[in-house]
Amino acid sequence: MLEKEYQRICEQASEFDPEPWNAKEACRLYWSYGRSVDIYLLCYEKRIVELRFFWEPTAEQIAIAAERLAGE
Question: What are the start-end ranges of the H helices in 1-72?
Fold first, then answer.
């Protein structure tokens, strides 16, 4: 679902495992030449979040973001 919607605004969106983010769905955006742009689209129960990093997040950073974003 998210992948199809966001392909309209970015060159490519690729779904990936949402579990580390405590999300229902997760996508990562890529440029047409395959390089990621460090933009994550996360679908939670009551919202969709666009999260931007300017680096590849570590597992610890993902866990912190997931804890804060998944909460009500």
Answer: 2-6, 59-70
